[in-house]
Amino acid sequence: MLAILGTLTVVALLALILTKRLTPLSALITVPVIASLVAGFGPKTAVFMLHGVQSVAGVAGMFIFAILYFGIVSDAGMLRPLIDRLLKAVGKDPARIAMGTALLALLVHLDGSGAVTFLVTIPVMRPLFERTGMDRRVLACAASMAAGVNFLPWTGPMIRASSVLHVPATTLFNPLLPVQIVGLIFVFAATYWMGRRQRTGLYVSAPLATEASVIQHRDEPSVRSLVRPKRFAANLALTAILLILMIGFKVEPMVVFMLGLVVALQINYPSLKEQQERIDSHARAALLMASILLAAGAFTGIMKESGMMTAMANAAVALVPHTTAHYLPLLLAVLAMPLSLIFDPDSFYFGVLPVLSMAGNAMGIPPAEVAQAALLGLHTTGFPVSPLTPATYLVVGLAGVELREHQKFSIPYLFAASLVMTAAALAIGVLHF
């Protein structure tokens, strides 16, 4: 009963968002609450939601202060010289800009944090996309692909798989290194192709083009009055310090951006009135996306605490016929990316993967191979589009695109990347059937 109800809940959520029947905020709250009440949990539903909200509160706080921080330093003109230099480096060729976005995201994601990757890559590249008139869905997709294919030993999915199966992360990763290289080649080929098509304007949809044109033709005198050219070096140094604290010293991003915001305001707009005006100008976007993040937390909380996630996991394992169990790694690798839309990382890697590993081990399949099959898509290529991960809402919020548009645009590319890596894993013998 719970497995069926959980599956229907996830399907209904995706359907309502993708068909524009409900906004993501409304769907994330309404659908799981109805499911929980139908399951008979009654007042416990509120407790489930609270637990879920608490689990994402840090991410929501990080998002609010990151948006405010980047908004302030952008108003002050820090990004303008950087964008000018990027334009000189990549020109105005959309193909080179798209590939440059993927390269930047790949380099930043070397620390293993998807959130930090998007917080750094998208605010830097978005003004360049707007200045050249490129579709911001390409920006979101390029950053998502580069981060998704980059499953290093210290990334979340790899650490979860390693810890739950008691297999060293290097044992899982080393055979996958050639597979990852193939995946990265696909990423750059795909971003080049997206950029080439962007030259013809095939990707530009009316809502995105309209919003971009508003940004490009805003009142120039009012914009110029906010620029602080003499503070460029100070803003750049402050941003570098914040990145070093997050990437090098692993300081909690929310704390970093809270402190950074205070310093940025004092450097650029010391007047109390100016500070309030700058905060007000960016608060709407920050609070809107933070509310969606909190709603996503409530959704995940209900799905976990009610037992629907666990029931779905057990049902998924039970559906695998014993006679076809030797195909388990291949089947898991092919379905890994789509399964990211149904399971959150913890539920899969701590709940489903151990069961699949035991089932495979009984058939003579090494646990490492089952884990490697999952890593080819499950919350690697799948995490930037899953409604169950906060990173997805960071991507759409920072890029300024709607969730449904990001999913419809990016899922085919991310799924293709997963399938290409699966084929490579089969070709070099990482996976067997």
Structural class, from secondary structure content?
mainly alpha
Number of strands: 0
Net shape: globular
Tell me the span between the first and last alpha carbons.
33 Å
Stretches where pLDDT is under 50 for at least 5 consecutive residues are: 202-219
Query: Can you tell me the number of structural domains?
Result: 1
- Mean pLDDT metric: 87
- Total helix count? 21
Percent helix among the residues? over 70%
**Per DSSP, what share of the residues sits in E-state strands of 2 or more residues?**
under 5%
Radius of gyration: 22 Å
**Largest beta-sheet details:** none
Oligomer: single chain
Order of helices and strands: HHHHHHHHHHHHHHHHHHHHH
Walkthrough of the structure:
Mean pLDDT is 87; it is low at 202-219. This protein has helices at 2-18, 24-38, 44-75, 79-90, 94-108, 114-132, 136-149, 156-165, 169-173, 177-198, 206-216, 220-224, 232-248, 253-268, 272-305, 308-318, 328-339, 345-362, 367-375, 390-399, 403-428. The longest helix is centred in the middle third of the chain and has 34 residues, at 272-305. The radius of gyration is 22 Å and the shape is globular. It contains 21 helices and no strands. The chain is mostly helical and 433 residues long. The chain has one domain. Helix content is 76%, strand content 0%.
